[in-house]
Each structure stands twice: as structure tokens, then as C-alpha cells.
Amino acid sequence: MRNILMKILSAGAVMLCVGNAAKAMKNPEWLKTAVFYQIYPSSYMDTDNDGIGDLHGIYQRLDYIQSLGVNAIWLNPTFLSNWEDGGYDVIDFYKIDPRFGTNTDMVNLINEVHRRGMKICLDLVAGHTSDKCPWFIESSEGKDMHYSDYYIWTDNPYTQDDTVETAGMQVSPWARHIYVESNYPRAKFYRRNAGIFQPALNYGFADPNPDKPWEQPVDAPGPQAVRRELRNIMRFWFEKGVDGFRVDMAASLVKDDPDRKETIKLWNEVRDWMEKNFSDRVLISEWGNPVQAIEAGFDMDFFFHFGVPGYASLFFRRDTPFGNYDRNNKYTDCYFDLEGKGDLHQFVENYSNVLKQTKGMGYVSIPTANHDFQRPNIASRNTIPQLKVAMTFFLTMPGIPIIYYGDEIGMKWYMDLPSKEGSYDRSGCRTPMQWTNDEDAGFSKCSPEKLYLPVDTDGGKLTVETQESDPNSLLNYTRNLLALRKDKPALGNTSDWEMVSDVDQPYPMVYKRTDGKQTIIVALNPSGRKVTATIPKQNGKVTTLVGDKNLGRYRAGKDSDRIDMNAVSAMIFEVK
User: Fold this and answer.
1) Does residue 335 sit in the same domain as residue 417?
2) Contact, 470 vs 477, CB < 8 A?
3) Does residue 319 register a pLDDT over 90?
4) Which structural domain, as residue segments, surrounds residue 149?
5) Are the C-beta atoms of residues 347 and 311 closer than 8 Å to each other?
6) What does pTM read for this prediction?
7) Distances from the Cα of 575 to the Cα of 23, 514, 534, 544, angstroms
8) What is the tens place of the pLDDT at every residue in 9-34?
9) How far apart are alpha carbons 526 and 30 in whole angstroms?
């Protein structure tokens, strides 16, 4: 199958049609035109001058957010947390963290978002809590209390196979990795889901080992109670108006579930419950495998830095920390780089497969960046023309676009910043939003040393204030692209995508978007040299929508068409 697909790709003909879908799309109608804006709340806008962003700050900036052309917001964690992992170590799922405000502040924000005709989704950490969570503290005390079986405990996690000696007992390396040794009264070890301070919630085991009594089946009372709690959390926020959740580590819930069958069943149960009670709400997964995630009932999953390979080969240079995130990924040079040594085979093959298998059933999102990986603006890609080429890609692909806050003004990704609240290398993509040209970039009025993380406006160039008044800025280019996407249905979330340039000659990348009535051609050349692509003849009059003769030219031919592109250029054409 792989060889057959590669022959098709070499011919530049990967056509994805709605008719290939296995079932009709059941997603909420508003997702068809959704464009998300992701906000890391600690870094967006500080109104109480403590150096940390808050909900009132987001409320104050809704005019700006709406002006971009987005119509949905996704907030990173806002629930009460111990802040050892950027809010992903939750203490109380029913309470907004005081650093951001109150539950009432969240309701006010939700209402104001809705008043503007927009949607808002929150982050939901479904697989674990903080070890400071009252549920975990009670569970650690004994076996016969309400929350006792919300977590996984054992005095002896080792197996008889592949064991090593440690701390006076035989423990398998695998067990030492996922079980945390403790001094709690309940047992000597608890199972974690992420960090050692993030104990796993007990959704049960797909295939429990009878020799390991702590491995409860998924239908045991403890795992069933945790599922009810998950629905209670969701109901609590749905009833306050939240439009959906992005679920952190969505594939991690049921343990020892290598094919994810039991985890898929679990989320399908949640989806069925939602359709009966909250049918217009959405579920977005951090799964990294859109085919599995959409099978599990999620409306959308990401094509990004982990899971199905392809994103990294486009954007991550090997000399950056995220360029080595997956060492098994064998690409050498990233595609969006001035050197022009990148390759498109991995991206086109894997993305095409994913899109084909999910078409008509759910959405695949290619985000500009997020809180967990580097922004497009790095040392090798830090000019506005380069970032315009990247943004053209992000906002003309199918699926649901997600702009990570600050990418619309080209905010930098910083290497070598100190870790902040468990961010490590992720500090560089969590720096404060840059609004104005003053000392704190308009994010706060605190003294600079109190800022959540440092700012760097590049002499004032990378701020909203500067770019608002510049018609050629990245900010206004982003707005124009989103206005074009809204105006041209062929560029929409559900329209078809076809790679029309030859992947064996990767520069430029040329693809076609169609909806049965309109045809749009997108051509991208991130390299520092002039390039040419020959594509199948597009019968009709070609009009330039984005770009001009300084960037390139479309030449219609008798048997095929040709696109000549100058260095670092992006063009969009309509064929009528």
C-alpha cells in the first residue's frame, strides 16, 4: 500500500473527496466555519499588575481577538492548580484558579464571548490530577473512603519478567517509570499519568492481570465512579455556557490499552452522553492520531509535533530542542527554511492518509504553534515575509485553523529561557503577549522583573500597536487571509484538498482547494531562491487573490500550467 501511495504522490495527485467518507459528519454545525485563537491565560493580559495574566485581561482584549477574524477561543488551563506543570496539575476542577479570577469572572467572560457571536472552550485534564488534589489526599489515606479507588495503588508493582534490583526490591524498569514510590499510608506506590506529582485517575485497565489485583477492570466501581466524575465536571462547565473542551492527553485514560480500544469506548460513551444533553458542544483531543481520535467521538484532533509524523519535517529545525523531540523521525532539513533543502514526502503522505480517513467525520487541525512547542518565528525564520509564507500555509489548509496567541504578530520563540512552572523548553512559547512598545509590552504595569516571562518586541516591531497601522504587517496579512477564507468557500474547513505540484520537486509547494464550485490554487516558496512548478492544466481564467508580480506569476499553458515564484513568496490564485 505504501508503494502504491508513493507512486500516486510522485505524480502529484492526492485527491481527497467528500464521497470517500465512511459516515456523515455529526459535528456541531458551527465547526464548519470555526477559526480558533488559543490563549495561554498566564501570558495574555495582566490587569491586577501581579505579572500574571487573568480572565479580566482576556475580557478587555475581546475586541482585538474578534478583529482578527477568529470566532472561537481555546483557553489553556484555568482551574485551581499547584502550578508544577503550567496548570496541568489540577487541584479542583470546579474552581477557577485565583490567579485568574473567580468562577463568576469566567461566566462573565463566557457571556461576553457569546454576546459577540463567538465560542469559548476550556482545557480539561481528564487523565490525572495534582497530588495536592483532595481526592488524591483522601485516596492516599485508606481503602474504604469515597475517593479511595479514584487512583491506582500497589505495594508491589514489579513483574517477574525483566526485573532489576532497586531500593532493596526487584522492580521492572517499566514499572519504575510509571509507578511512583511514596510514603503514603495507602500503599508504597501509586501510578502516575505524567509527572510524579500528577497521579493517574483510575479509569481501569483494558486487560487486567489477575496476578495484579490493583489492576481493576474498566467496569469496576472505582473506574465507573471516575467516569461519572468526568461527566460531572463537564456538565458543571457546560451549564455555565462553555462550548466545549480541549482534552489533554486524551488517549491516556484506560491503562495498558495499546490499541486504545477501551479508551475509544470510554470517549464514545462521553460523546453519546453529550449528544443527549449538550449536542452543540465540541470535544477537541490532544491525541496526535486524528483517525483514532475521531473514531473515539472527538470532533477534532491535531496534526502536530507528536503522533502522526509530518509537522516537524515542515517547521522544526534539527538544531532546536523540538527538532529532536522525536529522534525516530528521520527527516534532515525542515521545509519552511531559507536553505530550501526540505522534503514534502513525509508530510504529504501522512497528512493525506489522515485527511482521507477522517473526511466527513471530523476535523484535522494544523496549529500555528501551541503552548507545548516552538513558534514559527525562530532564528532561521524571523522575517515578516518568511512568516507570511508560513501563515499562508496555516490559514489555507483544510480543517479548523488555530492561531496561537502572538503568532499573528510574529512573536519570537525563545531558546534558553529559564523554566517557569514546569515549562522547561516550553518557556519560549509562553512569553507575554506584546501589545505596545513600552517596557512591559503593554501586558502589565508591574516592574519588569515580576513579569511571568520576559518580552522582546524587537525594538517595537513585534507589537500589536506597531502592526495595527502598517498595512503590510503580519497582523493585517493574517486578518486578510482569514477574511479571504471566509469569503471563499473553497478555502473552508470542509472543502477538498489536492497536492498538484510534484513532491519530488518540493519547492514550491502548490495545492488546490475546491468545494465543487470554486477552485483556489495556493503556491508557497519558503526558500531563498527562485523556483518553478509545473502543475496540471487548470481550465479557466486565473485571478491573483494574494501576491503580485514581485512574488511570482501564473502562466497558463496548452497542456500544463506553470507557476514561477521568487524567493520567500506566497501566492493565492482563483480559477474561474
Assistant:
1) yes
2) no
3) no
4) 134-200
5) yes
6) 0.93
7) 31, 10, 16, 9
8) 333 333 333 333 334 558 999 999 99
9) 33
